[in-house]
Design a protein that fits this description.
Layout (H helix, E strand, L loop, with lengths): L8 E2 L7 H9 L4 E6 L2 E6 L2 H9 L3 E2 L2 H4 L3 H7 L3 H5 L9 H10 L5 H6 L1 H17 L4 E3 H6 L1 H11 L6 H12 L5 H24 L5 H12 L7 H32 L1 H8 L5 H11 L6 E6 L3 E2 L5 E2 L4 E4 L1 H5 L33 H18 L4 E2 L21 E3 L9
Parallel strand pairs: 1-2, 3-9
Antiparallel strand pairs: 2-3, 4-6, 5-11, 6-9, 7-8, 10-11
Helix pairs in contact: 8-10, 8-18, 10-14, 11-12, 11-14, 14-16, 14-18, 16-18
Length: 413
Protein backbone atom coordinates (compact mmCIF):
# COMPACT_ATOMS: atom_id res chain seq x y z
CA UNK A 1 0.00 0.00 0.00
CA UNK A 2 1.35 3.44 -0.96
CA UNK A 3 2.12 5.87 1.84
CA UNK A 4 -0.87 7.99 2.85
CA UNK A 5 -0.59 11.69 3.75
CA UNK A 6 -1.23 12.61 7.37
CA UNK A 7 -3.91 15.11 6.31
CA UNK A 8 -6.34 15.04 3.36
CA UNK A 9 -4.96 16.54 0.15
CA UNK A 10 -6.74 19.85 -0.41
CA UNK A 11 -8.04 19.99 -3.98
CA UNK A 12 -7.54 23.31 -5.73
CA UNK A 13 -11.00 24.78 -6.44
CA UNK A 14 -9.62 26.64 -9.47
CA UNK A 15 -8.23 23.50 -11.13
CA UNK A 16 -5.20 25.54 -12.19
CA UNK A 17 -2.82 22.54 -12.39
CA UNK A 18 -5.13 19.57 -12.48
CA UNK A 19 -2.65 17.29 -14.24
CA UNK A 20 -0.06 17.84 -11.53
CA UNK A 21 -2.71 17.38 -8.86
CA UNK A 22 -3.88 14.12 -10.42
CA UNK A 23 -0.31 12.79 -10.48
CA UNK A 24 -0.11 13.65 -6.79
CA UNK A 25 -3.30 11.71 -6.08
CA UNK A 26 -2.16 8.64 -8.04
CA UNK A 27 1.16 8.64 -6.19
CA UNK A 28 -0.73 7.64 -3.03
CA UNK A 29 -2.21 4.50 -4.56
CA UNK A 30 -5.74 3.53 -5.55
CA UNK A 31 -7.43 5.79 -3.01
CA UNK A 32 -6.43 8.80 -0.94
CA UNK A 33 -8.34 11.14 1.34
CA UNK A 34 -8.93 14.59 -0.13
CA UNK A 35 -10.55 17.82 0.98
CA UNK A 36 -13.08 19.03 -1.58
CA UNK A 37 -14.17 22.51 -0.51
CA UNK A 38 -14.18 21.50 3.14
CA UNK A 39 -15.63 17.99 2.80
CA UNK A 40 -13.39 14.96 3.27
CA UNK A 41 -13.78 12.18 0.71
CA UNK A 42 -11.84 9.26 -0.71
CA UNK A 43 -10.51 10.16 -4.16
CA UNK A 44 -10.37 6.99 -6.29
CA UNK A 45 -7.84 7.18 -9.12
CA UNK A 46 -7.17 3.52 -9.91
CA UNK A 47 -9.41 2.64 -12.89
CA UNK A 48 -10.02 -0.97 -11.85
CA UNK A 49 -10.88 -0.02 -8.28
CA UNK A 50 -13.04 2.85 -9.48
CA UNK A 51 -14.97 0.68 -11.93
CA UNK A 52 -15.54 -1.87 -9.19
CA UNK A 53 -16.94 0.77 -6.84
CA UNK A 54 -19.12 2.30 -9.55
CA UNK A 55 -20.77 -1.10 -10.09
CA UNK A 56 -21.01 -2.09 -6.44
CA UNK A 57 -24.27 -2.21 -4.51
CA UNK A 58 -22.18 -1.24 -1.50
CA UNK A 59 -21.77 2.26 -2.94
CA UNK A 60 -24.65 4.71 -3.20
CA UNK A 61 -25.23 8.20 -4.62
CA UNK A 62 -28.07 8.88 -2.17
CA UNK A 63 -26.57 11.12 0.48
CA UNK A 64 -29.85 11.48 2.33
CA UNK A 65 -29.90 7.76 3.03
CA UNK A 66 -26.21 6.89 3.25
CA UNK A 67 -24.20 9.94 4.35
CA UNK A 68 -24.45 10.78 8.05
CA UNK A 69 -23.04 14.26 7.39
CA UNK A 70 -25.64 15.07 4.72
CA UNK A 71 -27.93 17.37 6.71
CA UNK A 72 -25.04 19.41 8.12
CA UNK A 73 -23.06 19.63 4.91
CA UNK A 74 -25.85 20.76 2.59
CA UNK A 75 -26.44 23.82 4.77
CA UNK A 76 -23.10 25.39 3.94
CA UNK A 77 -21.24 23.40 1.27
CA UNK A 78 -20.83 25.23 -2.07
CA UNK A 79 -21.45 21.94 -3.91
CA UNK A 80 -24.64 21.12 -1.98
CA UNK A 81 -26.65 20.97 -5.22
CA UNK A 82 -24.50 18.05 -6.42
CA UNK A 83 -25.67 15.87 -3.54
CA UNK A 84 -29.02 17.49 -2.70
CA UNK A 85 -30.90 17.12 -5.98
CA UNK A 86 -33.59 14.46 -6.25
CA UNK A 87 -33.16 12.74 -9.59
CA UNK A 88 -31.48 9.65 -11.00
CA UNK A 89 -28.06 11.30 -10.47
CA UNK A 90 -28.43 10.85 -6.70
CA UNK A 91 -30.82 7.88 -6.62
CA UNK A 92 -30.04 4.38 -5.35
CA UNK A 93 -31.55 0.95 -5.92
CA UNK A 94 -35.21 0.80 -6.92
CA UNK A 95 -35.53 4.60 -7.04
CA UNK A 96 -32.70 4.80 -9.54
CA UNK A 97 -34.24 2.10 -11.74
CA UNK A 98 -37.62 3.87 -11.66
CA UNK A 99 -36.18 7.27 -12.62
CA UNK A 100 -33.90 5.89 -15.32
CA UNK A 101 -36.86 4.02 -16.84
CA UNK A 102 -38.81 7.27 -17.06
CA UNK A 103 -35.98 9.28 -18.57
CA UNK A 104 -34.61 6.62 -20.94
CA UNK A 105 -37.21 7.01 -23.74
CA UNK A 106 -36.42 10.71 -24.07
CA UNK A 107 -32.82 9.78 -25.03
CA UNK A 108 -33.58 6.66 -27.06
CA UNK A 109 -31.38 5.67 -29.99
CA UNK A 110 -34.13 6.74 -32.40
CA UNK A 111 -34.41 10.18 -30.87
CA UNK A 112 -30.64 10.68 -30.93
CA UNK A 113 -30.38 9.49 -34.54
CA UNK A 114 -33.17 11.88 -35.50
CA UNK A 115 -31.14 14.75 -34.04
CA UNK A 116 -28.22 14.32 -36.47
CA UNK A 117 -29.85 16.57 -39.05
CA UNK A 118 -30.73 19.13 -36.38
CA UNK A 119 -27.12 19.19 -35.16
CA UNK A 120 -25.74 19.57 -38.69
CA UNK A 121 -28.12 22.46 -39.39
CA UNK A 122 -27.17 24.26 -36.17
CA UNK A 123 -23.44 23.79 -36.82
CA UNK A 124 -23.79 25.06 -40.41
CA UNK A 125 -25.48 28.25 -39.20
CA UNK A 126 -22.86 28.78 -36.49
CA UNK A 127 -20.03 28.34 -39.01
CA UNK A 128 -21.76 30.77 -41.38
CA UNK A 129 -21.84 33.32 -38.56
CA UNK A 130 -18.15 32.72 -37.80
CA UNK A 131 -17.20 33.14 -41.44
CA UNK A 132 -19.05 36.45 -41.58
CA UNK A 133 -17.28 37.92 -38.55
CA UNK A 134 -15.01 40.88 -39.37
CA UNK A 135 -12.48 40.19 -36.59
CA UNK A 136 -9.38 38.14 -37.29
CA UNK A 137 -9.29 36.34 -33.92
CA UNK A 138 -12.43 34.68 -32.57
CA UNK A 139 -13.20 32.78 -29.39
CA UNK A 140 -14.28 29.39 -30.69
CA UNK A 141 -15.58 28.34 -27.28
CA UNK A 142 -17.96 31.29 -27.35
CA UNK A 143 -18.86 31.00 -31.03
CA UNK A 144 -19.22 27.22 -31.43
CA UNK A 145 -18.59 25.12 -28.33
CA UNK A 146 -21.11 27.07 -26.22
CA UNK A 147 -24.00 27.75 -28.61
CA UNK A 148 -24.19 24.29 -30.21
CA UNK A 149 -25.02 22.26 -27.06
CA UNK A 150 -27.29 25.04 -25.80
CA UNK A 151 -29.24 24.95 -29.05
CA UNK A 152 -29.39 21.14 -29.15
CA UNK A 153 -30.45 20.67 -25.53
CA UNK A 154 -32.84 23.59 -25.89
CA UNK A 155 -34.42 21.86 -28.90
CA UNK A 156 -34.53 18.53 -27.08
CA UNK A 157 -35.95 19.98 -23.86
CA UNK A 158 -38.32 22.49 -25.45
CA UNK A 159 -36.58 25.52 -23.94
CA UNK A 160 -37.72 28.67 -25.78
CA UNK A 161 -34.95 30.28 -27.81
CA UNK A 162 -35.09 33.52 -25.83
CA UNK A 163 -34.49 31.65 -22.55
CA UNK A 164 -31.50 29.54 -23.57
CA UNK A 165 -28.82 32.11 -22.78
CA UNK A 166 -30.32 32.52 -19.32
CA UNK A 167 -30.03 28.80 -18.68
CA UNK A 168 -26.45 28.87 -19.91
CA UNK A 169 -25.37 31.48 -17.37
CA UNK A 170 -27.02 29.64 -14.48
CA UNK A 171 -25.63 26.21 -15.41
CA UNK A 172 -22.14 27.73 -15.68
CA UNK A 173 -22.52 28.66 -12.03
CA UNK A 174 -23.35 25.08 -11.03
CA UNK A 175 -19.92 23.95 -12.28
CA UNK A 176 -17.99 26.95 -10.91
CA UNK A 177 -16.24 25.69 -7.77
CA UNK A 178 -14.82 29.12 -6.94
CA UNK A 179 -18.22 30.49 -5.87
CA UNK A 180 -19.03 30.82 -2.19
CA UNK A 181 -21.91 28.95 -0.58
CA UNK A 182 -23.95 32.17 -0.61
CA UNK A 183 -23.24 32.78 -4.29
CA UNK A 184 -24.20 29.20 -5.11
CA UNK A 185 -27.42 29.58 -3.12
CA UNK A 186 -28.38 32.61 -5.20
CA UNK A 187 -27.50 30.77 -8.40
CA UNK A 188 -29.56 27.74 -7.34
CA UNK A 189 -32.59 29.94 -6.62
CA UNK A 190 -32.33 31.46 -10.09
CA UNK A 191 -31.96 28.02 -11.62
CA UNK A 192 -35.07 26.61 -9.97
CA UNK A 193 -37.09 29.69 -10.90
CA UNK A 194 -36.12 29.14 -14.55
CA UNK A 195 -37.00 25.44 -14.35
CA UNK A 196 -40.38 26.22 -12.80
CA UNK A 197 -41.04 28.61 -15.66
CA UNK A 198 -40.11 25.96 -18.22
CA UNK A 199 -42.40 23.39 -16.59
CA UNK A 200 -45.30 25.84 -16.54
CA UNK A 201 -44.78 26.75 -20.19
CA UNK A 202 -44.59 23.16 -21.40
CA UNK A 203 -47.54 22.08 -19.27
CA UNK A 204 -49.59 24.86 -20.87
CA UNK A 205 -48.36 24.06 -24.39
CA UNK A 206 -46.94 20.51 -24.52
CA UNK A 207 -44.91 19.38 -27.51
CA UNK A 208 -42.67 16.55 -28.70
CA UNK A 209 -39.85 17.47 -26.33
CA UNK A 210 -38.26 15.89 -23.28
CA UNK A 211 -39.83 18.32 -20.81
CA UNK A 212 -43.32 17.56 -22.11
CA UNK A 213 -42.62 13.83 -22.01
CA UNK A 214 -41.44 14.00 -18.41
CA UNK A 215 -44.41 16.12 -17.38
CA UNK A 216 -46.70 13.55 -19.00
CA UNK A 217 -44.90 10.75 -17.16
CA UNK A 218 -45.49 12.55 -13.88
CA UNK A 219 -49.12 13.43 -14.58
CA UNK A 220 -50.09 10.05 -16.03
CA UNK A 221 -48.38 7.83 -13.47
CA UNK A 222 -49.03 10.08 -10.47
CA UNK A 223 -47.95 8.54 -7.20
CA UNK A 224 -47.79 5.04 -8.65
CA UNK A 225 -44.23 5.23 -9.91
CA UNK A 226 -44.00 8.52 -11.76
CA UNK A 227 -41.93 11.57 -10.93
CA UNK A 228 -42.58 13.64 -7.84
CA UNK A 229 -42.61 17.40 -8.27
CA UNK A 230 -39.05 17.67 -6.93
CA UNK A 231 -37.88 14.78 -9.11
CA UNK A 232 -39.38 16.38 -12.21
CA UNK A 233 -37.64 19.67 -11.58
CA UNK A 234 -34.32 18.07 -10.67
CA UNK A 235 -34.46 15.69 -13.63
CA UNK A 236 -34.79 18.68 -15.95
CA UNK A 237 -31.85 20.26 -14.15
CA UNK A 238 -29.80 17.11 -14.72
CA UNK A 239 -30.69 16.88 -18.41
CA UNK A 240 -29.94 20.53 -19.15
CA UNK A 241 -26.70 20.73 -17.16
CA UNK A 242 -25.31 17.34 -18.21
CA UNK A 243 -26.35 17.87 -21.82
CA UNK A 244 -24.78 21.29 -22.05
CA UNK A 245 -21.66 21.97 -19.97
CA UNK A 246 -19.95 18.65 -20.61
CA UNK A 247 -20.37 18.83 -24.39
CA UNK A 248 -19.02 22.39 -24.44
CA UNK A 249 -15.85 21.15 -22.80
CA UNK A 250 -15.34 18.16 -25.09
CA UNK A 251 -15.64 20.35 -28.21
CA UNK A 252 -13.25 22.87 -26.67
CA UNK A 253 -10.70 20.22 -25.68
CA UNK A 254 -10.92 18.31 -28.96
CA UNK A 255 -10.26 21.41 -31.06
CA UNK A 256 -7.38 22.58 -28.87
CA UNK A 257 -5.80 19.10 -28.91
CA UNK A 258 -6.04 18.81 -32.68
CA UNK A 259 -4.58 22.28 -33.19
CA UNK A 260 -1.63 21.49 -30.91
CA UNK A 261 -1.11 18.03 -32.42
CA UNK A 262 -1.28 18.57 -36.20
CA UNK A 263 0.07 15.07 -36.86
CA UNK A 264 -3.12 13.68 -35.29
CA UNK A 265 -5.32 15.89 -37.45
CA UNK A 266 -3.34 14.64 -40.44
CA UNK A 267 -4.34 11.06 -39.56
CA UNK A 268 -8.01 12.01 -39.90
CA UNK A 269 -7.51 13.90 -43.14
CA UNK A 270 -5.59 10.96 -44.61
CA UNK A 271 -8.25 8.46 -43.57
CA UNK A 272 -6.01 6.70 -41.05
CA UNK A 273 -8.49 7.59 -38.27
CA UNK A 274 -11.95 9.11 -38.09
CA UNK A 275 -13.68 11.77 -36.04
CA UNK A 276 -15.04 9.25 -33.58
CA UNK A 277 -11.43 8.32 -32.76
CA UNK A 278 -10.75 11.98 -31.98
CA UNK A 279 -13.81 12.11 -29.74
CA UNK A 280 -12.87 9.01 -27.76
CA UNK A 281 -9.24 10.01 -27.27
CA UNK A 282 -10.30 13.49 -26.17
CA UNK A 283 -12.70 11.96 -23.66
CA UNK A 284 -9.88 9.79 -22.34
CA UNK A 285 -7.15 12.43 -22.18
CA UNK A 286 -9.23 15.48 -21.20
CA UNK A 287 -12.65 14.32 -19.95
CA UNK A 288 -15.28 17.03 -19.52
CA UNK A 289 -15.59 16.22 -15.80
CA UNK A 290 -12.42 15.82 -13.74
CA UNK A 291 -13.95 14.81 -10.39
CA UNK A 292 -17.61 13.89 -9.87
CA UNK A 293 -19.07 14.43 -6.38
CA UNK A 294 -20.13 12.29 -4.54
CA UNK A 295 -20.82 8.66 -3.67
CA UNK A 296 -21.13 7.03 -0.25
CA UNK A 297 -20.20 3.69 1.29
CA UNK A 298 -23.35 1.78 2.24
CA UNK A 299 -21.22 -0.58 4.32
CA UNK A 300 -17.51 -0.88 5.08
CA UNK A 301 -15.71 -1.37 1.77
CA UNK A 302 -12.27 -3.00 1.79
CA UNK A 303 -10.10 -2.03 -1.16
CA UNK A 304 -7.63 -4.41 -2.86
CA UNK A 305 -4.71 -2.62 -1.17
CA UNK A 306 -6.16 -3.29 2.28
CA UNK A 307 -7.53 0.18 2.99
CA UNK A 308 -11.12 0.41 4.19
CA UNK A 309 -13.68 3.02 3.25
CA UNK A 310 -15.89 3.04 6.31
CA UNK A 311 -19.66 2.98 6.12
CA UNK A 312 -20.99 6.48 5.51
CA UNK A 313 -17.75 7.93 4.18
CA UNK A 314 -17.81 9.95 0.99
CA UNK A 315 -16.21 8.83 -2.27
CA UNK A 316 -15.01 11.08 -5.10
CA UNK A 317 -14.84 9.54 -8.58
CA UNK A 318 -11.66 11.08 -10.01
CA UNK A 319 -12.28 10.26 -13.65
CA UNK A 320 -9.53 12.38 -15.20
CA UNK A 321 -6.82 10.93 -12.97
CA UNK A 322 -8.05 7.38 -13.60
CA UNK A 323 -8.16 7.88 -17.38
CA UNK A 324 -4.44 8.67 -17.41
CA UNK A 325 -3.41 5.89 -15.07
CA UNK A 326 -0.15 4.49 -16.50
CA UNK A 327 -1.23 0.91 -15.80
CA UNK A 328 -4.33 1.33 -17.97
CA UNK A 329 -2.82 2.97 -21.05
CA UNK A 330 0.69 3.09 -22.50
CA UNK A 331 1.95 6.67 -22.84
CA UNK A 332 -1.17 7.72 -21.00
CA UNK A 333 -0.33 11.45 -21.16
CA UNK A 334 0.02 11.36 -24.96
CA UNK A 335 -2.77 12.39 -27.36
CA UNK A 336 -2.92 9.49 -29.79
CA UNK A 337 -6.16 9.04 -31.73
CA UNK A 338 -4.92 5.73 -33.16
CA UNK A 339 -4.18 4.06 -29.84
CA UNK A 340 -5.55 0.49 -29.94
CA UNK A 341 -7.43 0.74 -26.64
CA UNK A 342 -9.70 3.78 -26.31
CA UNK A 343 -11.35 2.86 -23.02
CA UNK A 344 -12.12 5.65 -20.57
CA UNK A 345 -14.46 6.63 -17.75
CA UNK A 346 -15.52 10.02 -19.09
CA UNK A 347 -19.20 8.99 -19.06
CA UNK A 348 -18.98 7.00 -15.84
CA UNK A 349 -19.49 3.26 -15.48
CA UNK A 350 -22.12 0.83 -14.32
CA UNK A 351 -25.75 1.70 -13.62
CA UNK A 352 -25.05 5.46 -13.57
CA UNK A 353 -23.41 5.46 -17.03
CA UNK A 354 -24.45 8.68 -18.74
CA UNK A 355 -27.66 8.29 -20.76
CA UNK A 356 -26.66 11.28 -22.88
CA UNK A 357 -23.35 9.80 -24.05
CA UNK A 358 -24.56 8.98 -27.61
CA UNK A 359 -25.88 12.52 -28.08
CA UNK A 360 -22.65 14.10 -26.80
CA UNK A 361 -20.56 11.91 -29.11
CA UNK A 362 -22.81 12.84 -32.04
CA UNK A 363 -22.55 16.58 -31.39
CA UNK A 364 -18.78 16.59 -30.99
CA UNK A 365 -18.07 14.41 -34.05
CA UNK A 366 -20.35 16.45 -36.32
CA UNK A 367 -19.02 19.79 -35.11
CA UNK A 368 -15.38 18.73 -35.60
CA UNK A 369 -15.99 17.33 -39.07
CA UNK A 370 -17.82 20.41 -40.27
CA UNK A 371 -15.46 22.88 -38.57
CA UNK A 372 -12.24 21.47 -40.03
CA UNK A 373 -13.85 21.01 -43.44
CA UNK A 374 -15.01 24.63 -43.53
CA UNK A 375 -11.77 26.04 -42.10
CA UNK A 376 -8.85 23.77 -43.11
CA UNK A 377 -6.32 26.44 -42.05
CA UNK A 378 -7.77 26.84 -38.54
CA UNK A 379 -5.05 27.48 -35.94
CA UNK A 380 -4.65 28.78 -32.40
CA UNK A 381 -4.24 32.53 -32.05
CA UNK A 382 -2.14 32.23 -28.88
CA UNK A 383 0.51 29.78 -27.67
CA UNK A 384 -1.10 26.69 -26.14
CA UNK A 385 0.43 27.51 -22.76
CA UNK A 386 -1.64 30.70 -22.61
CA UNK A 387 -4.98 28.88 -22.70
CA UNK A 388 -6.48 29.42 -19.24
CA UNK A 389 -8.39 26.61 -17.50
CA UNK A 390 -11.89 27.14 -16.18
CA UNK A 391 -12.18 28.00 -12.50
CA UNK A 392 -13.39 24.57 -11.48
CA UNK A 393 -12.17 21.31 -10.00
CA UNK A 394 -15.13 19.62 -11.72
CA UNK A 395 -15.46 21.10 -15.20
CA UNK A 396 -12.51 20.63 -17.58
CA UNK A 397 -12.24 23.26 -20.27
CA UNK A 398 -10.74 26.64 -21.12
CA UNK A 399 -12.02 30.11 -20.33
CA UNK A 400 -11.52 31.02 -23.98
CA UNK A 401 -10.32 29.29 -27.14
CA UNK A 402 -8.93 32.06 -29.39
CA UNK A 403 -8.34 30.91 -32.96
CA UNK A 404 -7.75 32.26 -36.44
CA UNK A 405 -9.78 30.58 -39.14
CA UNK A 406 -7.35 31.40 -41.94
CA UNK A 407 -3.62 31.86 -42.32
CA UNK A 408 -2.49 35.47 -42.62
CA UNK A 409 0.54 37.01 -44.24
CA UNK A 410 1.65 38.42 -47.61
CA UNK A 411 -1.00 37.68 -50.18
CA UNK A 412 -3.29 36.05 -47.57
CA UNK A 413 -6.46 37.45 -46.05
Amino acid sequence: MAAQPTEPIVLDPTGADHHGEHRQLRAHGAAVRVDILGVTAWSITDPDVLKGLLKSKDVSKDGRAHWPDFQDVVQTWPLALWVGVQNMFTAYGADHRRLRRLVGPALSARRVDDLAGVVENIVAHLLDDIEALPEEVIDLRERLAYPLPIAVIGHLMGVPVDQREGFRAIVDGVFDTTLSAQEQEVNTSRLYAALDGLIAARRAEPGDDMTSLLIAARDEEGDGGGLSGAELRDTLLLMISAGYETTVNVIDQAVSLLLTHPEQLAHVRAGRADWSDVVEETLRLEPAVKHLPLRFAVTDVTLPDGQTIARGEAILASYAAANRHPRWHDDADTFDIRRPEQDHLAFGHGIHFCLGAPLARLEVAISLRMLFTRFPELHLAVPAGQLEPLGSLISNGHRQLPVRCRLTGPGRT
